[in-house]
TrEMBL record:
It comes from Oidiodendron maius (strain Zn). This is DUF1254 domain-containing protein. Residues 315-427 form the DUF1214 domain. Residues 32-170 form the DUF1254 domain. InterPro entries: DUF1214 (IPR010621), DUF1214_C_sf (IPR037049), DUF1254 (IPR010679), DUF1254_sf (IPR037050). Signal peptide: none annotated. Gene3D superfamilies: Domain of unknown function DUF1214, C-terminal domain, Domain of unknown function DUF1254.
Length: 448
């Protein structure tokens, strides 16, 4: 493979990292290594994030371990609630998680570079004598930390989750030993190639020059090859100088062709027209898969935390006399405290405004079986595993009362939309593909 094409393929996720980091770094007082909490659920008025999750509150931090380690303090979280502190390198690999799925508890955890402690990257349990509940060993100097906490459907619960989000803190602590190259701290200069370039391919190469030296590949066996190819492509000593005759535009177009081909042939088929990227969340040497996720949904989690199946139907549209029905053969199998949802987005990836202020349907939506009994929330029904349906039709075409709870309102103007299925804390059966994914059918509008 041409060295420039390889470098673009390897480095493309850094563009997404820079998009996230720029608001933390380009400040009069930078907020690197500081949690920035998002204390309200997403609404159609918010267009900063594409395809926002309306199930959880978030808190985000851009991480920089160039000089210090970081103590991550996690407050108490009540039982049977999904929560997760997800740690990422700049390329979007979810290399460690602390949360309900992994049966972690509140307390203090030390985030440090794996090079400095001589341990493998990932989560490491503490022996209890060092004052920490555990260690997060980062494979890179820079990265990000994204907190997700489930919100149930009432205002008091939102207030509770806000207190959890705001009670989470990061504190710098001096590092005893630095082994290997830790790089310079994040600064305006680090992201200058992103800020000053409208050309994505050039920005990627400039970001690689700044970030690659202190943020090596996950696979140590890849390090020599990756740095050799970067140097051949003109990346050396923190600078990018294109070799003679290099056409970045052509190389970037070739990369996009490769990504499009992979979507067609490289995804795992789940049945009923559903597919998923594989591997998910941590990609090792699969740089193509990593690129696709960076473009479509940077910072996805590993599959035991959440599954993100995609429908091959892609973007859809409905007239006022049409509907789409999602038929679930049974309740999605998630662990205790887990949850699932179907969320509606317009063609730009933002929530669809509607008179009901309803943007998702899931296990907290009082959905019902065809006989009117609740799918969730009634102890006598908990063991029932019958089929149920979710109705998608324009928000100005009201269905009969027995469909109201199962109705996901779509645009009323015939414009395009997409529906995203999310499954958090999936069971092993769901991960292995032993559950039948919902069947999607189009028909006439359902009216009284």
């Amino acid at each position: 493979m041409d060295a420039t094409l390889f470098s673009l393929q390897y480095g493309l996720p850094l563009y997404a990292f820079a998009s996230l980091a720029v608001d933390f770094v380009y400040q009069p007082t930078p907020t690197v290594n500081v949690f920035v909490p998002f204390t309200s659920l997403a609404t159609p008025a918010e267009v900063q994030v594409v395809k926002p999750n309306v199930d959880t509150l978030y808190s985000a931090a851009v991480i920089d371990l160039a000089h210090d380690d970081i103590v991550v303090s996690i407050p108490d979280v009540d039982a049977n609630r999904f929560w997760n502190f997800a740690f990422y390198n700049p390329f979007g690999d979810n290399f460690a998680n602390i949360g309900s799925v992994n049966n972690n508890t509140s307390g203090q955890y030390l985030l440090r570079r794996s090079n400095d402690c001589g341990e493998d990257f990932g989560y490491q349990k503490s022996d209890g004598h060092d004052g920490y509940h555990g260690f997060i060993n980062s494979p890179t100097t820079q990265g990000s930390l994204l907190v997700r906490v489930l919100v149930r459907d009432n205002e008091s619960d939102l207030s509770y989750v806000q207190s959890v989000i705001q009670g989470s803190t990061l504190k710098l602590v001096p590092r005893q030993t630095t082994k290997g190259y830790a790089g310079a701290p994040l600064s305006n200069a680090t992201l200058a190639g992103f800020v000053n370039n409208t050309n994505t391919s050039l920005a990627v190469m400039e970001l690689l020059a700044q970030l690659a030296p202190a943020n090596p590949p996950l696979n140590t066996s890849d390090i020599e090859h990756v740095y050799y190819e970067l140097e051949r492509a003109g990346i050396s000593r923190g600078r990018y100088k294109p070799p003679p005759g290099v056409n970045l535009t052509l190389a970037y177009a070739e990369l996009n062709d490769s990504l499009a081909a992979y979507v067609t042939t490289g995804f795992k088929h789940l049945g009923n027209g559903w597919v998923t990227n594989d591997p998910q969340g941590i990609y090792y040497s699969n740089y193509i898969d990593r690129d696709i996720v960076a473009l479509a949904g940077y910072l996805e989690q590993v599959e035991n935390q959440a599954l993100y199946p995609m429908s091959t139907a892609g973007e859809m549209a409905l007239t006022n006399n049409q509907s789409i029905v999602y038929t679930f053969s049974s309740k999605p199998p998630v662990e205790s405290g887990g949850f699932w949802s179907l969320t509606m987005y317009n063609s730009l990836g933002y929530l669809v405004s509607n008179p009901l202020d309803k943007y998702a349907v899931g296990d907290r939506s009082n959905i019902t079986y065809p006989d009117g009994s609740r799918v969730y929330g009634n102890s006598c029904q908990d063991a029932r595993e019958d089929a149920f349906q979710v109705l998608v039709q324009p928000y100005n075409i009201y269905p009969p009362a027995n469909w109201t709870n199962n109705w996901l309102p779509a645009p009323a103007d015939g414009s395009g939309f997409s529906v995203t299925l999310r499954l958090y804390a999936a069971t092993s059966d769901l991960i292995k593909g032993d559950w039948e994914f919902p069947l999607i059918t189009q028909g006439s509008a359902v009216t009284a």
